[in-house]
Amino acid sequence: MGARPLLNRRLDGLGTTIFAEMSALATATGSINLGQGFPDTDGPAEIARAAADAVLSGRGNQYPPGPGIPELRTAIAEHQQRFYGLGYDPDTEVLVTAGATEAIAAALLALLEPGDEVIAFEPFYDSYAACIAMAGAVRVPLTLRTPDFRPDLDELRSLVTPRTRLLLLNTPHNPTGTVLTPAELTAVAALAVEHDLLVVTDEVYEHLVFSGAHYPIAALPGMRERTVSISSAGKTFSFTGWKVGWVTASAPLVAAVRTAKQYLTYVSAGPFQYAVADALRLPDEYFGGLRTDLRRKRDLLADGLTAAGFEVFQPQGTYFVTTDITPLGEKDGLEFCRSLPGRCGVVAIPNVVFYDNTEAGRSLVRFTFCKQDEVLLEAVRRLQRL
Ligand code: PMP
Ligand code: GLN
Predict the structure, then answer these.
(1) What residues does ligand 1 touch, defined as CB less than 6 Å away?
(2) Which of 2, 283, 311, 377 has the most beta carbons within 10 angstroms of its beta carbon?
(3) Ligand 2 pocket, 143 CB below 6 A?
(4) Whole-model pTM?
């Protein structure tokens, strides 16, 4: 081949995702994997059985309808009404996607022109940078800083330019665990209305909130017609491999996102769509139980990491806890995470890969706590050797 690089220059530097790198390292070294966020116990057995029944009874084994099966679109609309009082028409205002990942990609590819600026809170989830790049747009970071990772709303305001098209939100926020407050969301919404901006909001951790509550920005005045809300079944129901996600938005926004989505996967996960429709209708005790269980695991891991000498930033939501390794005499999170499996058999994620302003994240390291108690306890024992 000639001298021209094979990889499109928009994707330059995006290489292998940190999750793939670190999970491969965990497997190769037999380490405890507190890196990539996936539970080590599956979700409810009756939901797994619903998926198996769908396969065996021939529901969803052939291409489901492009926007998703009506049963699931109805269940998603019911869920938005039940938890947030938001009304969406299942036929025109709901779209089923291949996980939140496809929803994010389709939304950004559909809504952005080359050169548009997208303001996002950094550290950002890795697919945001890639999808903004694939759309030819420009990411503009608002850095969430230690110790409390709150957005500086004056700085946010100062980042808006005539080229700003979209605000990309993530609440609860991966990796910091920040849950945006009603006051913060109101300020963001006011800015969006004032400058006529679109908002894409990734709410995959909506049910994993330990203090305060999750508030969807779509519920605020003037936001319904400019907000694309994204969520998925992976985190809420502990089936991250099923890759069933969804978009709720006004009909014109859903039509735009659907246009891009049609040419990404067209459709996916037929039988799982039936099972997720059942999952969304689980009783309140299921959602409360998940939260209680994860809150306990958060405290278990956070206490253990503190005892091991890390500075721990208590997350309000998600199943991640961010730490600073400086008190351990370490400076570089990437180096630390690459050496950690060899040093003590634990894998974590260096937050620096989620920053443009790498200085702000250099010494920060993320651990997940969606693992069995004994696994978390063993990881903590190992980390205390540091
Ligand atoms: N957004 C965030 C913030 C995430 O942490 C993840 C990781 N699961 C996703 C989106 C992707 O979700 P899904 O697995 O449904 O594609
Ligand atoms: N969302 C998961 C995390 O942050 C990883 C998903 C992935 O591997 N892309 O750990």
Answers:
(1) 99-101, 125, 170, 174, 202, 204, 232, 234, 240, 243, 245
(2) 311
(3) no
(4) 0.97
